[in-house]
Design goal:
Elements: E1 4-5, H1 12-16, E2 19-23, H2 27-38, E3 42-46, H3 54-59, E4 63-65, H4 67-73, E5 76-79, H5 86-94, E6 103-106, H6 110-113, E7 124-130, H7 134-142, E8 149-155, H8 161-171, H9 174-177, E9 179-181, H10 184-198, H11 201-216, H12 221-240, H13 249-262, H14 265-280, H15 282-292, H16 296-306, H17 309-318
Parallel strand pairs: 2-3, 2-5, 3-4, 5-6, 6-7, 8-9
Antiparallel strand pairs: 1-9, 7-8
Helix pairs in contact: 2-7, 4-5, 10-14, 11-12, 12-17
Length: 338
Amino acid sequence: MAEVFYDDDADLDLVQTRNVAVLGYGSQGSAQALSLRDSGADVRVGLPERSRSRVHAEADGLRVVSPYEACEESDLVVVLVPDPAQPSLYTEAVEPNLVDGDTLLFGHGFNVRYGRIKPPAGVDVVMVAPKGPGWLVRSEFGEGRGVPVLVAVEQDASGLAWELTLSYARAIGGTRAGAIKTTFGEETEAALFGEQAVSPGGVVALVHAGFETLVEAGYQPEVAYFECVTELKRNVDLMYEGVRAYHRSEAEYGGYTSGPYVVDASVRRRMSDVLATIQGGSWAEEYTADQDAGAPKLDELRQNAAAHPIERAGHEMRKLMAWVKPHDGSPADGPAAG
């Protein structure tokens, strides 16, 4: 079983003695910066002059400086910009200002796990990864509760890295719910696998396949959309609440009998193949090469996905559902969006 830490295991005073630079002010950056401030930490936000987030951070009462200045002033640097932007930000603003005894904190282990960021030996390298979106981290904090976090120490140069990690986790509400001990490798690999093989990757592919099967068999696209998408939403909500995701006995019986037939041992083998590419680093190499080239393959994949017939059906069917908020279809901000 995992080791879990709570408020009694964390000394809030430790983070309160640090000068904290939060780099990024997206979903997680804003939530964590504000909660750190409310917990008594000395926080400044590092954003480029051109960043549209500057006005929001300033309106929230935070001091905003350039990333370089923020790192220069601080001994705890929190990196909460998207993964592809981190290596250049690290080279330009973080690395020149790191000195022995500083702490570098990440919200996701990707760049450290795959060696795209290699901190010096005298610096603590840690991670606090909330298992929920930034708006939830902030709202739960405001209610006196918290969102569970994953915590890890990659490099403990000071001998006090764990203590500061837990102090930070407490400052954003994480130890109210529980801080689960992990490693950079486990967090990164499990997150990538879950995203690719289960949700959204595997789930979206399964939904598309179900939609195509019904339409090719002569069923109306509108009906196929409701059965393959709308019903999925209800069932996932039930699963999230710990309820069996079957609202009718027919669904339950068919789920037990047909589910393992569709997702059989061959699917598990391909899942293992996906995990192997993540563990071995080949997937990360492919992804980062595409990002470094301007993301041409990702753009092509997005265009192909947008052209799928389920998107046309969904566009029309969502007009009938007043409770669904309009959305432009662009990707949602990730956990470390800045």
